[in-house]
Amino acid sequence: MTRMSGARERRVRTGGVELCVAELGDPGRPTLVLVHGYPDSKEVWSEVAPRLAERFHVVAYDVRGHGRSTAPRPLRGGFTLEKLTDDFLAVVDAVSPDRPVHLVGHDWGSVQSWEFVTVGRAKGRIASFTSISGPSLDHFGHWIDRRVKRPTPRRVGQLLGQGAKSWYIYLLHTPVLPELAWRGPLGRAWPRILERLEKVPGDGYPTPSLPSDAAHGTWLYRDNVRRRLRNPRADAHAHAPVQLITPLEDAFLSERLYEDLEQWVPRLTRRTLPAKHWVPRSRPDLMATWISDFVTSVETGRAEEVRPRGRYADRFGGQLVLVTGAGSGIGRATALAFAGAGARVLAVDRDAEAASRTAGEALRRGAVAAWAETVDVSDGQAMEKLAERITTGHGVVDVLVNNAGIGLGGSFFDTTTEDWGRVLDVNLWGVIHGCRLFGRRMADRGQGGHIVNVASAAAFQPSRALPAYSTSKAAVLMLSECLRAELAGQGIGVSAICPGFVNTAITSTARFAGADAEEERRLRQRTARLYGMRNYPPEKVAAAILRAVARDVAVVPVTPEARTAYALSRWMPGALRRIARVKPPV
Ligand code: NAD
Fold it and tell me: In terms of residue numbers, what domain contains 34?
């Protein structure tokens, strides 16, 4: 029995083997053919296929020698890319004889699909190809060639980096041993290894055929890898649009491998996500969404329109991004910047109306989806409920931006314990709650992610005018550094953003300790005027936040004055201390 619920099965005979083919959904709809990798069977798609079957005719088959398909005899020479292409064409003839199919491959399924989408005899049979974690051996061969023939320090680094990630390929080329290991201890331990190292949920996957799949599949490597890498085809150009999905925490493939891909693929859409290698198991929702969007865009002839736009579109498209304090200023600009890159945006604020205004605008700016949530970030219980609700409704957050904060001026002795409590509750505890609740889920998921904490230049610039605010921000900076160290091994980056003076509404809501209502109104107006004259737009801080996530930067001072203060705090702290004594003009 197949584990893909509701699937119909048929056998397709080709080249001396019998392939087990599963079908879901209405055959009248566009056909998607899903090809699994190594060591795997078509069951790797059992979470993705039913989601796609709501809109498409979905076909998944066991590659020869895997799952419930028979193996060629002899094994040696039975797994060449040419024979795998024969199999694919036989499946297509059976399931969609009159219409080209949309091809999706993961790992070795993607490696062989690259062959299908670049050889002449499959031209016209493939409408689009989504490649997940599996390069073309021909492109890989040229990639190596270019780096060996014209080495630069960067290219040699790339070569060594990928070489180290390919250790298992050398092992699989040794005779007999891999088969013995897979049919013995490795085969038994594999489900646990996948669960522990790859964080693949262990719900009955992989299936019991794994040891024999893995043993047979070693011939995929032996029959093809050396031969193709030494002699890559020069005409391996894709004849259909390609969507490339690259998990950034992939232990086996580096992102650099795809640097030259535009030369082989005229219509390429790139997408990346923080995740390990087995994304059809760990991120089935997102995979189904991206495949479905891409196929629909090709079917409707709107591939160009739907393609994510903007500088970071390939990095953030489809990702779940949560921004606190998204109703105004820096938070709003950040939510909209992620929206512009095609993310799914959660706009969180204590001001419900402001949050939904941002969510509405996010949709207009290109967010794949956007929701508004109301919460006071300083309320631990409310934050816990929010985290629960969001995880159930939308999944684990990929990028968390702890931005909500409030201003408080006034001397230390004018600052009451209530004032301290409020500013620490929002500015520090709000960040702690966010990191604990959403960061924990990110870590448990084990597929990487990023946390951004919005601190301030006040975190490293002392001042007699802002003791409580500066203390809260210094704590956020240190918390970010500590958490960054703790999460480094888990593919989760942590960035502290430290803006200087930014023209937002914070000046009109900031409190001034020791001032009566009239005095506070006057101080707010004056600060607002000064910030207005400085006129640094929150959009520039938002751009710095996206850059910090994409490049995984630890501390980012934004605005020239923040950068100057940061440099002084490291090289001339005495000068900063003297500036700190200056009394603010009244
Ligand atoms: P802003 O007042 O324009 O926006 C802050 C948003 O946070 C508002 O929508 C507000 O409703 C929300 N918020 C406040 N308290 C909240 C709470 N307890 N729970 C949920 N939402 C809450 O301010 P901004 O300038 O955009 O500030 C954003 C962040 O940037 C803050 O952490 C601030 O300290 C920091 N920052 C601002 C500046 C600046 O010059 N504007 C400089 C450095 C750092």
Answer: 8-299
